[in-house]
Fold this protein.
Amino acid sequence: MHEIEVSREKTNLGHRNAAALVRKAAEAALLAEGITMPCLVSVMLTDEEGIRLVNREFRGVDRATDVLSFPLNELTPGAFDPELCEADPDASVLMLGDMMISIPACEKQGEEFGHGFDREIQYLTVHSILHLLGYDHLDEGEQKRRMRAREKAILGEPE
């Protein structure tokens, strides 16, 4: 139903299952948020250097990170309005935005948190999809609590 386009910036990133895990997690997040209209999300899998360069260019932060989200629309969390989304007239889908995920960060964080690569890349995908849908966590307050609660619910984890 949704178009989750996953590409690799480099061929030697490993984890051949990464694209399938990203697609599965993105679909789950969109379904959980009640998004029934076909949407397009572009995902670039990269390494630390690739994500650092994009982070520096677009956010002015010269360091690697785990995931970057680039929403195309200004949406209200939990209140999806397709009228506020850019549409691709050729593909008849709503364009939500782009994300970039660092494979090495998924490896490191999956090991550090003890839940492995597969769960980490799915978590980062859900996290990024929520950003594309208007969620944010700029402060330690209600916005962050709401976003974390949605992430856990989508991933089927207890609160």
Summary: The beta strands are 3-8, 39-46, 67-71, 86-88, 93-102. The two ends are 29 Å apart (CA to CA). The chain is about 45% helix and 20% strand.
